[in-house]
């Protein structure tokens, strides 16, 4: 009889968060040994998902990265996504800036992380959010991985958004795929898609909010064949922040953690502040 054991799936819990007088429900899970998770001096990797993402859509990548780096982690679905509180109104066009100033501090306080050193790992919208939060709370962030970030809107970005809307409204595969990860698929899809396609959003740009304000080393990663943005996105980070390492992954689209997970993990391990 085999004595091998399957890895224990991390326990997902619901965390109440107070924001603007409203109680939000956030689905979250901790990764790593309990002693490391509970140690307030131990840096914690916080994973911030993309505009259509959620806790479950990361699959096993956060656990793999935490294991490779020997660090604890936190994965959660922002409101409007996964099994967190659904969105009740349209996202404003500055929703990422607002979430960096309000939602993330509220979540971190509710989870007892107000003074915890953090390594932020953001994907797409989550990468932009990680950059904005680091600029807003510089004492809180020790390092930052920005994967397929958006600093400004490009024509290819709008084309990708329009293609996604067509697929969601006229086909079945995208809607069914999202339904596996979101309790309310319209909340997840239209919150993101409506905000970006609303007239005027083509002028959205966060470069001025980041220039001279990022407090930590940044690893900026993008797939060469990213369908939502060009390499100008990560190059712009290097232009406004000297302590930036750029990684352009070949044979890779908008989701390096799915297309090139081993290369990505190796790149983060090589870059990680204090380990190089």
TrEMBL record:
User: What terms describe the molecular function in GO for this protein?
Assistant: hydrolase activity
The keyword Hydrolase is assigned to this record? yes
InterPro entries assigned: AB_hydrolase_1, AB_hydrolase_fold, AB_hydrolase_sf
UniProtKB keywords: Hydrolase
User: Where in this chain does the record put each AB hydrolase-1 domain?
Assistant: 45-265
Q: Which PANTHER family does UniProt cross-reference here?
A: HYDROLASE, PUTATIVE (AFU_ORTHOLOGUE AFUA_2G14860)-RELATED (PTHR43798:SF33), MONOACYLGLYCEROL LIPASE (PTHR43798)
Protein's UniProt name: Alpha/beta hydrolase
